Amino acid sequence: xxxxxxxxxxxxxxxxxxxxxxxxxxxxxxxxxxxxxxxxxxxxxxxxxxxxxxxxxxxxxxxxxxxxxxxxxxxxxxxxxxxxxxxxxxxxxxxxxxxxxxxxxxxxxxxxxxxxxxxxxxxxxxxxxxxxxxxxxxxxxxxxxxxxxxxxxxxxxxxxxxxxxxxxxxxxxxxxxxxxxxxxxxxxxxxxxxxx
Length: 196
Prior knowledge:
The chain has 196 residues and is of the alpha/beta class. It has a single domain (4-194), classed as Alpha-Beta Complex (Inosine-uridine Nucleoside N-ribohydrolase, Chain A), CATH 3.90.245. The chain is 33% helix and 19% strand. The protein has helices at residues 14-25, 43-56, 107-117, 131-139, 143-146, 169-173, 175-184; strands at 4-10, 29-36, 64-66, 122-126, 149-156, 188-194. A six-stranded parallel β-sheet has the order 3-2-1-4-5-6, sandwiched between helices. The mean pLDDT is 90.
């Protein structure tokens, strides 16, 4: 059986950390790279959190790329401390070691490159705000046609949210990017909505 190839785009808080761990443990799955985006915390903390997860899972050979620090339009909304200020419960000391482990290539360029190198084979897993995906499709409008499929954690059903009474967190953090992705990613798309 051929390996399932994944790229994970994340704002790595506790929920995303668990999703990454599950992906790393899944048989027949190869994570080509992890792209980081603001969301649960700032993008630097997200990068550090991803490196912490990969270190615990002994998978530090997986490349990690720093991406969007804010939404397409307007300022970054204040970060919530639902998962602590660092996104992982503030239980670990901050370190600068992770900075040397992050790839120099920007997440947008890495996303486009990895998909182009594996056309028709990559499942893109979007666990946070969709800013990196929206910017990537602006740089390469053919990107969605080269994906195998797209999985999104975001949005809501019946207008019930988890950030406000009607807004789900990931889509609310960058609603314009969510719009771009839902309009322009024409590949097979699956959305796991908030069940609030």
